[in-house]
Automatic annotation (TrEMBL):
Domain of life: Bacteria
Residue span, HTH gntR-type domain: 8-76
Protein name, as recorded: GntR family transcriptional regulator
Biological source species: Streptomyces siderophoricus
Keyword DNA-binding among UniProt keywords: yes
Stored Pfam families: GntR
UniProtKB keywords: DNA-binding, Transcription, Transcription regulation
Length: 260
């Protein structure tokens, strides 16, 4: 291949040429890139220029560097895991979630006291900096190796009103749903999903490659008089997982059922 002759910084020119080779299929998904020496020879540039070009493509998410093995074109295939976001009532105040038995806790549960932010306070019908119980877990999907971070926020008012909850804020979400129902609440849920780039500690805990976004679900459990009872956040890598939902028709758009 002829020497690079394009406007712009030299490493950007090399990155553009490698990007074109990836998008054209010359370098296929999952395949290793040529070695540094081969790229130096191919584009007639220096080693620092090649390294800067690879770093730029890593930041774009096109390339994944595997330590000790080299640089690889990131796979563009479908996620290996579909997380079904469903809550079911299996008996008298006995709740289950679709994937409840396929995840293993590898860190936590860790219980602490924290304060609401503007966002979490609004969802919990509280002000900012209101004190709540927090409980964090790191989860491992045993079949695929995917990891997830789960957080539960419990307002003090909810804990005080629900027998047993103040003594066990680290209970599994399904168990907390049962406590809320036993306290007389007819439960329903509202959930939102957004994609964002991970924080450094999230990237480390989830074992994410460079430039990989996360999916964050935010689920609010509601009860009597539309009261917000608890808030859950689930965070997982968008390269490994997608979310699945069962959608049913409500008669008036405001129906509250035990299945979401």
């Amino acid at each position: 291949m002829a020497e690079i002759q394009r406007p712009g910084a030299l490493y950007q020119q090399v990155a553009a040429a490698i990007r074109e080779a990836i998008l054209s299929g010359e370098f296929e998904p999952g395949a290793p890139l040529p070695s540094e020496a081969q790229l130096i020879e191919r584009y007639k540039v220096s080693r620092p220029t090649v390294r800067n070009a690879i770093a730029a493509l890593r930041a774009e998410g096109l390339i994944e560097v595997k330590h000790g093995k080299g640089s690889f074109v990131r796979s563009s295939g479908l996620p290996v895991l579909t997380v079904e976001r469903r809550v079911s009532l299996s008996g008298a105040d006995q709740f289950t979630t679709a994937d409840g038995e396929t995840w293993k806790i590898v860190d936590g549960p860790s219980v602490y006291r924290t304060q609401t932010t503007a966002a979490t306070g609004s969802l919990l019908q509280l002000g900012e900096r209101e004190e709540v119980f927090g409980c964090d877990r790191t989860l491992l999907h045993q079949a695929t190796g995917a990891r997830a971070l789960h957080r539960t926020l419990i307002p003090f008012a909810t804990a005080d009103q629900v027998p047993g909850l103040a003594d066990s804020p680290d209970a599994e979400p399904e168990a907390i749903y049962g406590m809320l129902a036993n306290a007389g609440h007819e439960l329903w849920w509202h959930e939102t999903v957004r994609a964002r780039m991970p924080l450094p500690d999230e990237r480390s805990a989830l074992h994410l490659p460079d430039a990989t976004p996360v999916l964050q679900t935010t689920r609010t459990t509601h009860g009597l008089d539309r009261q917000a009872l608890i808030l859950e956040e689930l965070c997982l890598g968008a390269d490994r997982a997608q979310l699945g939902y069962r959608i049913t028709a409500d008669e008036d758009g405001n129906a509250r059922t035990a299945t979401a």
